[in-house]
Amino acid sequence: MQVKVLSARFDIPDAHKIEVAKEHGAYATLEKVFSMQPVDVIELVKQSGLRGRGGAGFPTGLKWSFLPKNNTKPVYLAVNSDESEPATFKDRHILVLDPHAMIEGIIICCYAINSHHAYIYIRGEYTTQVKVLQAAIDEAYAAGYLGATVDGHDFPLDVTVHRGAGAYVCGEETALLESIEGRKGQPRSKPPFPAVEGLYGCPTIINNVQSIASLPYILTNGADAYKAFGTEKSPGTHLFGISGLVKKPGMYELPLGLPILDVIEHVAGGLREGRKLKGVIPGGSSTPVLTPEEAQTVTLDYESMAAHKTMFGSGGIVVLDDTVDIVKLVENLISFYHHESCGQCTPCREGLGWMLKIVKKIIGGKGTTADINLLVELCDNIEMKTVCVLSAACTMPVRSYLNKFRHEFEAYVTSDVSCQTAM
Ligand SMILES: Cc1cc2nc3c(=O)[nH]c(=O)nc-3n(C[C@H](O)[C@H](O)[C@H](O)COP(=O)(O)O)c2cc1C
Ligand code: SF4
Q1: Can you give the pTM of this predicted structure?
Q2: Which of 43, 146, 369, 384 gives 20 to 30 Å between its CA and that of 222?
Q3: Which domain holds residue 315?
């Protein structure tokens, strides 16, 4: 089931070094790219069907085409390497095992969108990744792939690495821009969208590491070769991080469209002996959980996830077996999002804290049925009433646990008081 497109150089010793990466194809596609018109590069990426790998699955080529025409301002690329969503651990592999794939992807993207400065916003805790990445960028400058010219072409390009300081919300694209500009990482209201008014008030494209690192393969092999993987509407391959209670957790590159249960069984080794499946988180902590029955028909692509009222997200699959206490899982989940709220919207800042208090009360044996109902009501009142979707990234999965595992919350409830509880 596993394929090697993005991970083609992962097993090659020292592939993070430019001379080894080049021996195995890095930067080879630039000659072709610079012989094309930028608009044709965008068209090829559109044809490939590549969708953003940061979570939302927005078509990459289409996003690039939203840049204003007849623009006179500088254009920026910001590569989102914040990777802080719980259960998500794909980009870190690219950053450390094949940083030159991402740098080559940055060159391709910048040429297509006419940008001469790219920023890489990297999660603060990724200390090894920062070192390896910066060394690779230095090598690319020294080899003439970055700087005043790129591969001998009259196309200046600089790349700046900007380290985050440990805030999950800075992965949200506009908070990321605020942070690069030196301010507190708080999401901006949209519109204007970053493609029109982004970094320093200039048009900016924000793409995930994996989206950018997918470009060299597409430009080298063409749109049809990329579309040969995956499904019609979700083409290509993805680095899936499979964790939780399986025998072989890890990062695996797979084509999109495979049945999720087959992947859990045959790629991740299946459940531990004697255990039963309780649920599957399909794409990072913010995605609604699937019951074992639902998981029977789910395939790893954007359409199947949407049809099952969940999301493909970041490809971080978490397997839950019958030892998992769903109520404690929910406590852990809310506690993370509450802690990471930037605090500018009252429903997120106060609401998530209120939800956490209620769940703690339920776990402490002092909850009521009314408290469970109040949690559902709070989810409804918080969701989509805030500047960014961090709050929804909490309420959407919490609602799914309340709906699908209500009996586990009820098992904690000691008295059945139907009136609203004062917190
Ligand atoms: C709270 C929050 C955290 C996010 N964290 C990340 C992240 O760590 N990496 C990422 O690529 N996208 C993250 N996103 C999505 C970005 O806002 C953005 O959609 C993405 O970087 C666009 O890249 P893509 O089109 O290549 O997917 C996050 C969104 C939210 C709301
Ligand atoms: S929803 Fe939460 S994280 Fe997002 S802007 Fe509002 S307070 Fe900040």
Answers
A1: 0.96
A2: 146
A3: 237-321
